[in-house]
Amino acid sequence: MNIPATILAQLRQSQRMVVVTGGGLSAESGVASFRQAMVGEWANYDVRDLATPQAFARSPKTVWQWYDFRRRQIATAQPNPAHHALVDLEQHVSEFLLITLAIDGLHWQAGSRDLVELNGCVQRVRCVENGHLGDWDEEGSIPPRCPRCGSLFRPDVVLLGEGFARTHVLRARTAVEQCDTILFIGELSTADPVAQFPFMARRAGATVITVNRDDSMFAVTADYHIKARASDCVSELVRIITSGTGAV
Ligand SMILES: [Zn+2]
After folding, report:
1. Residue ranges of the domains in the chain?
2. What is the pLDDT of residue 247?
3. Residue 116 pLDDT > 80, yes or no?
4. Is residue 97 within 8 Å of residue 172, measured between CB atoms?
5. What global pTM score does this model have?
6. Where does the pLDDT of residue 245 fall: very low under 50, low under 70, confident under 90, or very high at 90 and above?
């Protein structure tokens, strides 16, 4: 890995770091994308009948069953070396935040705790009235009702047409505006607010680094672009950062 000395020094000295991940890192763990997951009986559905608030209002059972299917698919995936390396990075940097667009929960499973899951997590459910969190119940009615308030449970994910939770966006934006280094890892959606993060970080004077096989918008706007698969190189990158020595 031939990282310029100035970038390497910035990485090693970083006190306030943000890392952003999404669908690319999930794919490297074998997690199917939303479209890829629409197989078998689900292939005939329109996305608008599976993953919108309107669909849930019309047919909560269908939406629940779709996400239950997604959850079971995703449960077979395991964190990859990049997920594990980011847990080490969190321990090393004094102010650290991992922002992910993934819904698979693999960062949490790997051990990351300074984490904002902008799109939620398919392994959790929450009630529609009060946001009480719960676990998927294998038994009983579909969808089940919240034991605390009686409203329906729904998957704790952001459906199409819904915005991200305001508290999550605020926490993510604040970290980006205050960071000295930001890493974009793997293929990422270019939807707001994530598409704004490179520019926000630059305004804050941060160094912007991407790890991605493609020349994405994030790569083009970066100070340094590592053109590689995340699961192949992030653990090496983290080792170099955390050890303070090593071949570069
Ligand atoms: Zn409730």
Report:
1. 5-31+79-119+164-243, 34-76+126-157
2. 47
3. yes
4. yes
5. 0.94
6. low
How remote is the CA of residue 106 from the centroid of ligand 1, in Å?
A: 26
Q: How confident is the model at residue 243 (pLDDT cuts 50, 70, 90)?
A: confident
Give the single-character DSSP code of 49.
Answer: G
CATH assignment of 5-31+79-119+164-243, given 1.10.1200.10, 3.40.50.1220, 3.20.70.20, 3.30.450.20? 3.40.50.1220
pLDDT of residue 204: 93
For ligand 1, the distance from its centroid to the CA atom of residue 147, given in whole angstroms, is: 7
Gap between the Cα atoms of 201 and 195, Å rounded: 11
C-alpha dist (Å) from residue 122 to 53, 86, 142, 197: 16, 21, 16, 25
In angstroms, what is the span from residue 162 Cα to ligand 1's centroid? 19
Please give the class, per CATH, of domain 34-76+126-157. Answer: alpha beta
Instruction: Report how far ligand 1's centroid is from the alpha carbon of 156 (Å).
Output: 13
